[in-house]
Specification:
Layout lengths: L3 E8 L6 H17 L4 E3 L14 H4 L7 H13 L2 E10 L5 E8 L5 E6 L5 E3 L5 E3 L11 E5 L2 E5 L8 H9 L4 E3 L6 H19 L2 E4 L3 E3 L5 E3 L3 E3 L5 E4 L5 E8 L1 H9 L2 H4 L12
Parallel strand pairs: 1-2, 2-3, 9-10, 10-11
Antiparallel strand pairs: 1-16, 3-4, 4-5, 6-7, 8-9, 11-14, 12-13, 14-15
Helix pairs in contact: 1-3
Length: 279
């Protein structure tokens, strides 16, 4: 049975103002829909990127009334497509924010919400420190969606370094793993493609990774290079550093084929770690 799906990844360079980014992403969304995309995905921090990060405490909307949600709920109904809003910044409780990904159906339903579990608290190789946990609360639930376009496992950016998250979703049937991101340039150059291909190979799944690119307010630079990767770990489409669209057809039959060739999801065995000390 044919299970092809036309997917489109939006690569953008987020500005500080929500309205500016909404206009940019809406234009890309419409162009993708005009080209026949059935599933459109946007990057992490789609709504805005500001410096310093704590400014978001004053500029982030609540989920109710968020302009991105209100706008794109109508858009998916108009165009009859699925949409992953890679992540929006949502005002949460206790003076903290949520880095939340949304999956919208063609009926305009919010089918799933996923709050980024692994927060980016890192000192990068270029000497810049990031402390996402200072302003964001991390999630504690994975999101796996059984939909009519496939079984979709949701994640965000830094999650890609935690392979057990993807393994758990793949063992429960995930065929498509989404990794919207705003990867830094040093770590992106060194690890982005390798990590994405590894998650695809380990799980025999498609990986769809829409990314932020370019220089943002305050001088933060993101890597770009959005990618579509098949279950054999092959990059079937890759963007460079410019804003734009990445579109490809994927065949979900490839998931069963590759998992049959390398059935590692079934072959895992329980074990204990024996710790030894030398004299």
């Amino acid at each position: 049975m044919e299970k092809t799906l036309k997917v489109a990844l939006v690569q953008t360079s987020a500005r500080p103002e929500i309205d500016d980014n909404l206009a940019l992403i809406d234009d890309a969304f419409m162009r993708a829909a005009d080209q026949g995309a059935e599933f459109i995905l946007t990057p992490e921090n789609s709504c805005h990127m500001v410096y310093p990060q704590v400014k978001k405490l004053h500029t982030a909307p609540h989920e109710s009334g968020h302009p991105f949600l209100e706008h794109f709920i109508k858009r998916v109904q108009e165009r009859g497509v699925w949409l992953l809003l890679g992540s929006l910044t949502i005002k949460g409780d206790n003076n903290k924010l949520l880095n939340r990904s949304y999956l919208l159906s063609p009926k305009g339903q919010i089918v799933a919400r996923y709050d980024k579990i692994h927060l980016f608290d890192v000192d990068t190789p270029d000497g810049v420190a990031y402390r996402e946990s200072q302003t964001f609360d991390g999630g504690d639930k994975a999101a796996l969606v059984h939909s009519d376009i496939g079984c979709i496992g949701m994640s965000i950016c830094y999650d890609v370094r935690f392979p057990h998250l993807y393994r758990d979703m793949a063992q429960r049937g995930a065929e498509i793993l989404t990794v919207p991101a705003a990867f830094t340039v040093p770590t992106g150059r060194a690890h982005w493609e390798v990590l994405l291909r590894a998650r695809a190979i380990e799980n025999g799944a498609f990986v769809l990774a829409p990314a932020q690119t370019g220089t943002h307010e305050g001088g933060r630079e993101t890597w770009g290079h959005s990618m579509i990767i098949n279950p054999w770990g092959e990059v079937i489409a890759s963007a460079g550093e410019d804003e734009g669209l990445l579109i490809a057809d994927i065949d979900l039959n490839d998931v069963a084929l590759r998992r049959g060739q390398i059935p590692s999801l079934k072959n895992g065995r329980p074990y204990k770690v024996e710790e030894l000390r030398s004299l």
